[in-house]
Write a structure and sequence with these properties.
The protein is mainly alpha-helical. It is built from six helices and five strands. The protein has helices at residues 9-20, 61-76, 101-116, 123-129, 131-134, 144-162; strands at 27-30, 39-40, 56-57, 81-85, 119-121. A three-stranded parallel sheet has the order 1-4-5, with helices on both faces. Strands 2-3 form a two-stranded antiparallel ribbon. α1 runs parallel beside α2 (61-76) and α2 runs parallel beside α3 (101-116). The longest helix has 19 residues, at 144-162. The protein is globular and about 45 Å long. The two termini are 21 Å apart.
Length: 163
């Protein structure tokens, strides 16, 4: 994993080659989405300038889909088995994000992954199965137990791909 937060798909397009480096990759489990569907306003004093009322969408849906296509093409060139991890739920009251937008972004990503032959780790459904127990209130982040719950699913998908 890169040492920094990989941000939105635009940041991914800029940083992906550096993050991949010259290493050999057997499996790449990846996601972009929560930063893409965030509304930001440079005048907002909230963390990350999040502002779903007066802000601008970080990455419009059409650009998100286009960016994902390019990112997938770059990762496929490594020869690694790719696993797309869809975006986890955005709860009501989330700062800078609108609940349910992850579904639209996941639909766009599904079109890209299906056409590219990339498998999907449905972490959104997995999180939804225990959401009240694992997600922090009005936040896209999770409790320590929640992160462990998500990590177990991710690890299982990677192990399955390595067999």
């Amino acid at each position: 994993r890169p040492g920094a937060n990989c941000g939105d798909t635009r940041m991914g397009l800029v940083g992906l080659q550096k993050w991949l480096g010259t290493n050999h990759w057997d499996v790449i489990h990846f996601n972009w989405g929560l930063w893409d569907l965030c509304y930001r306003n440079p005048k907002s004093e909230s963390q990350g300038h999040r502002d779903k009322v007066n802000g601008k969408l970080s990455t419009p849906l059409e650009d998100y889909e286009k960016n994902l296509r390019e990112l997938v093409t770059t990762m496929k060139a490594t020869g690694a088995k790719l696993i797309w991890c869809n975006t986890t739920p955005v709860p009501e009251g989330s700062d800078g994000r609108i609940a349910g937008d992850e579904l639209k972004y996941n639909e766009a990503a599904a079109r890209v992954m299906t056409s590219a032959g990339v498998s999907t780790d449905d972490l959104c459904a997995h999180a939804n199965a225990k959401l009240k127990d694992v997600q922090l209130p009005a936040n896209v982040h999770y409790s320590n137990d929640g992160y462990k719950y998500l990590a177990e699913k991710v690890a299982a998908e990677i192990e399955k791909a390595l067999k």
